[in-house]
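lol ok so funny story. i was supposed to be doing the assay writeup but got distracted and ended up predicting the structure for this chain instead. priorities right. anyway since i did it might as well share w the group, maybe its usefull for someone
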Amino acid sequence: MEAETFSARLEDMCVLAEKRGRPVYSAFLNDREQYEAERLLGKRHGITVMLWGGDEACLRRVLCVAPEDFAPEREDFPIYPLTLKFRKADKPEHRDFLGAFMGLGIERETVGDIFIGDGCAAVFCTKTARDMITDCITAVGRIGVSVEDGLTDNARSAVKPAEFRDITINTASLRADCIVGRITGLSREKSAELIRSGSFMLNYSECCNISRTLSEGDVLTIRGHGKYVLTGDIAETKKGRIRMTVKKYS
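and the output, tada:
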């Protein structure tokens, strides 16, 4: 979504929440949209902002904008969990479910996270998507499925947060090319080429500036190498280098 269009949508939500005196909810937002929403709305007074995807493990989340004196509750979010059952011998993938949903004309923004377990999948979606999936989905690809409202115990056990591991790096500076080089194991020259080629995203936006200074909390996406967060613990070594912790998502 274009930045100006998204910003206008956020403004409309704020105005509507203030006018109605009650919360207004978005569709599911991706990582970049969530980051932008928090960045832009964090500057605005008179509103309360909350993001929720249906479970702590969910990465795609719905934005709630409410009047300042209103305390949003997770239970009030218009998020509907579904269980899709299939034979344990079948092994559908995430893209198979999305393909089946999109094939019905269901818009991507109406579907949140999809967690696939042993013989079932947990799907978080809006009411519109829930109704279409419940009424129309009988197969995912060539795999037959049945749909139930809510999450069964098996489906709930499939809902797990993304895995990550901590990496400690030592770098000469907090420049983008230095950090990318230490994370990827590439030379500084190769790292600079990678950044200039458009293969590096900083906080979900393309960044081609090799000398950009990075800081704690920045989210780095490096094409071919994965997603990382600079979690902090930044300290200077005795030799004047910088030691820091980086979280790598699996």
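The longest helix spans residues 3-20. The CA atoms of residues 53 and 61 lie 4 Å apart.
back to the writeup now i swear
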